[in-house]
C-alpha cells in the first residue's frame, strides 16, 4: 500500500520513527510531520503565515518531510502536493500519550486522521498512554499487523479508527476491545501560581478523579486492553434534528 504517516509530536519523535520503520519494508511510506511538537492543536490549520516544508533525512537512505505547520496541515500538504499519488491510508502517530474521551477534541493526532477522512482517505490515529513503559516498537508492529483487517472494514466515508494502548510492555497486553469514547476525562484542574511581579499565571494540572464508564476507551486502558474506537467526521446530532424541527424556529 501507499501509506502516509504523520503525527503531532514532530518528525523526530520515537513513535513516528518506530511506525515508519515497521511499515517501510512492506509498503511505500511517505512521512510528512510537523517540524516540532504540535500537541493539543486539534484540527487547526495555518492561515496567517506561510506553510513551509523541507526534506529531512530519517536514516541512511530514508527521507521525510518536516512541515512548519500543524498535523492537519501536514496531511493537506501531503495529499495535494508532496505525494505523487493519493495514499491508500493515512496513519497518525504513534503519539506519546493517550487520545481518549473528551481529549480527542483537542488532539492533533486525531485531527490529522480526521483531515484524511474528510478527504475520503481511510485513516487511523494511534497512541500510547503516557507512562514509564511506552512500547512504541510493539505498538508499531501491532499497527502493521492489523492494516489488512482495517482496510477490509470498508468503513463509510468520514469514519476512521482511533486506537490507544496502555503504557505497558506488549507481552502484557490483555487483548483488544472495541470501545466508545469516554465522557469523563476533561482536563479541568489548574495549578495557580504567582510570578515575581505578583501576577497570577496558570498551568494545566490534570483532571479531577473520575471512574470511566464501562465499555469506554479509558476503561479498556485501565484493564490493559488496546482500545479501538470508530470516530466520525459528521458532527450533526441526527437524533436531535426532529426535536429542533418541531420547536418551530
Number of DSSP E strands: 11
**Mean pLDDT score, rounded?**
95
Helix content: 10-25%
**Class from helix and strand fractions:** alpha/beta
How many whole angstroms does the radius of gyration measure?
19 Å
Overall 3D geometry? Answer: globular
- In N-to-C order, the SSE pattern is EHEEEHEHEHHEEEEHEH
Strand portion? 25-35%
End-to-end gap: 49 Å
Low-confidence stretches: none
Q: Report the sheet with the most strands, covering strand number, pairing sense and barrel closure.
A: 9 strands, mixed
Order of strands across the widest beta sheet?
3-4-2-1-5-6-7-11-8
Question: Would you kindly provide a written description of the structure presented here, covering whatever features stand out?
Answer:
The longest helix is centred in the N-terminal third of the chain and has 12 residues, at 71-82. This protein has seven helices and eleven strands. By secondary structure, the chain is of the alpha/beta class. α1 packs parallel to α4 (136-145) and α2 (71-82) packs parallel to α3. Helix content is 24%, strand content 27%.
Secondary-structure map with pairings?
Blueprint: E1 2-6, H1 14-23, E2 28-34, E3 53-57, E4 63-67, H2 71-82, E5 89-96, H3 108-118, E6 123-128, H4 136-145, H5 147-152, E7 159-165, E8 175-178, E9 189-194, E10 200-206, H6 217-222, E11 225-232, H7 241-246
Parallel strand pairs: 1-2, 1-5, 2-4, 5-6, 6-7, 8-11
Antiparallel strand pairs: 3-4, 7-11, 9-10
Helix pairs in contact: 1-4, 2-3
Question: Quick summary of this structure?
Answer:
It contains 7 helices and 11 strands. With 249 residues, it is an alpha/beta fold.
Amino acid at each position: 500500500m501507499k501509506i502516509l504517516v504523520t503525527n503531532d509530536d514532530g518528525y523526530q519523535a520515537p513513535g513516528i520513527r518506530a511506525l515508519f520503520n515497521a511499515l517501510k519494508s512492506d509498503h511505500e511510506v511517505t512521512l510528512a510531520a510537523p517540524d516540532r511538537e504540535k500537541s493539543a492543536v486539534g484540527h487547526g490549520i495555518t492561515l496567517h503565515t506561510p506553510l513551509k516544508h523541507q526534506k529531512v533525512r530519517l536514516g541512511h537512505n530514508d527521507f521525510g518531510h518536516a512541515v512548519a505547520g500543524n498535523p492537519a496541515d501536514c496531511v493537506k500538504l501531503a495529499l495535494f502536493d508532496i505525494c505523487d499519488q493519493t495514499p491508500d491510508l493515512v496513519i497518525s502517530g504513534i503519539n506519546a500519550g493517550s487520545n481518549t474521551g473528551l481529549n480527542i477534541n483537542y488532539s492533533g493526532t486525531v485531527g490529522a486522521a480526521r483531515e484524511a477522512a474528510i478527504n475520503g482517505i481511510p485513516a487511523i490515529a494511534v497512541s500510547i498512554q503516557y507512562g514509564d513503559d511506552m512500547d512504541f516498537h510493539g505498538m508499531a508492529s501491532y499497527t502493521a499487523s492489523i492494516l489488512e483487517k482495517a482496510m477490509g472494514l470498508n468503513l463509510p466515508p468520514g469514519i476512521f479508527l482511533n486506537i490507544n494502548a496502555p503504557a505497558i510492555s506488549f507481552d502484557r497486553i490483555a487483548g483488544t476491545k472495541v470501545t466508545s469514547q469516554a465522557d469523563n476525562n476533561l482536563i479541568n484542574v489548574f495549578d495557580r501560581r504567582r510570578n515575581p511581579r505578583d501576577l497570577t499565571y496558570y498551568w494545566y494540572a490534570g483532571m479531577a478523579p473520575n471512574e470511566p464508564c464501562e465499555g469506554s476507551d479509558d476503561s479498556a486502558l485501565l484493564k490493559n486492553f488496546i482500545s479501538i474506537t470508530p470516530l466520525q467526521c459528521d458532527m450533526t446530532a441526527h437524533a436531535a434534528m426532529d426535536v429542533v424541527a418541531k420547536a418551530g424556529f
